Amino acid sequence: AQKITQTQPGMFVQEKEAVTLDCTYDTSDPSYGLFWYKQPSSGEMIFLIYQGSYDQQNATEGRYSLNFQKARKSANLVISASQLGDSAMYFCAMREGFTGTASKLTFGTGTRLQVTL
Amino acid sequence: AAGVIQSPRHLIKEKRETATLKCYPIPRHDTVYWYQQGPGQDPQFLISFYEKMQSDKGSIPDRFSAQQFSDYHSELNMSSLELGDSALYFCASSLRTSGRSSGELFFGEGSRLTVL
After folding, report:
1. CA–CA distance from B19 to each of B44, B89, B106 (Å)?
2. What is the pLDDT of residue B2?
3. Do B112 and A31 touch (CB under 8 A)?
4. In this complex, do B101 and A31 lie within 8 Å of one another by their Cβ atoms?
5. Which of A42, A45, A107, B49 gives B68 a disulfide partner, CB atoms 3.0 to 4.6 angstroms apart?
6. pLDDT under 50 in chain B at which residues?
7. pLDDT on residue B99
8. Are the Cβ atoms of A45 and B43 closer than 8 angstroms?
9. Measured distance CA(A76)–CA(A90) in Å, rounded
10. Which residues of B touch A109 (CB under 8 A)?
11. How far is B50 from chain A (nearest CA, A)?
12. CB A113 within 8 A of CB A40
């Protein structure tokens, strides 16, 4: 079974609008972390935001917020006030277990976001 | 701030040749990961090292090997290259923390391997 599912291969959003990128996950481990990364066309992977399974509040980082719904196993990324520079591929990823195991990240298939004028 | 350094950035090889990619993690980071990202695909985990010991292994072909050295830099060695090995190879590093599953992976800019 897919551990991370991103059902939107591509999304369009107008500049200055908000957009939500969907991510659902599957794990039986009570301890896990969810991450979002941005990959522009230049190829580098840029960390955006993190949500831990025990965190009580939704994570926020500037214009990025994570809508964490634990019971639904979803961790959607919300980008507010979209900018042209937000056009990129966005990956949701999960780490299972506490970091003491130095466990790897498992990535979803990504969503390509295009911001239009 | 220092980031993860990967070299070379671009590499072109012929089929059946060998290639070596290098990674220099962020100072004081104790864990290194290698990922392979094919065209239009998500990054696939290959292998990781914690304190110079292999800690996890993913879908790494037998033709590939990796190690982490005493100065914490890591090398990914790829032999008998195939066309399908053409990909962007990422190295990432992180610092283990206790009590949380945080500790995001910091990625290098990637090494783009093209096999002709």
Report:
1. 19, 12, 23
2. 75
3. no
4. yes
5. B49
6. 98-101
7. 47
8. yes
9. 11
10. 41-42
11. 7
12. no
Per-residue pLDDT of chain A (117 residues; tens, 9 = 90+): 679 999 999 999 999 999 999 999 999 988 889 999 999 998 999 999 999 998 889 999 999 999 999 999 999 999 999 999 999 999 999 988 765 555 788 999 999 999 999
Q: How far is CA A79 from the centre of its chain?
A: 10
The rounded distance, in Å, linking the Cα atoms of A95 and A101 is 10
A37-51 exposure pattern, b = at least 16 Cβ within 10 A, e = fewer: bbbeeeebbebbbbb
Distance CA A50, CA A65 (A): 9
Tell me what pLDDT residue B1 has.
64
The pLDDT assigned to A75 comes to 97
For residue B51, give the amino acid letter: E
Cβ of B101 within 8 Å of Cβ of A32? The answer is yes
- Give me B89's structure tokens: 């190879």
Select the residue of A45, A47, A97 nearest B90 (Cβ to Cβ). A45
d(CA A80, CA A21): 11
List residues in chain B touching A: CB distance below 8 A: 30-31, 33, 41-45, 48, 50, 55-56, 58, 88, 90, 92, 94, 96-110, 112
Burial class (CB in 10 A: 0-12, 13-18, 19+), A77: buried
Distance from C-alpha of A43 to C-alpha of B65, rounded to nearest angstrom: 24
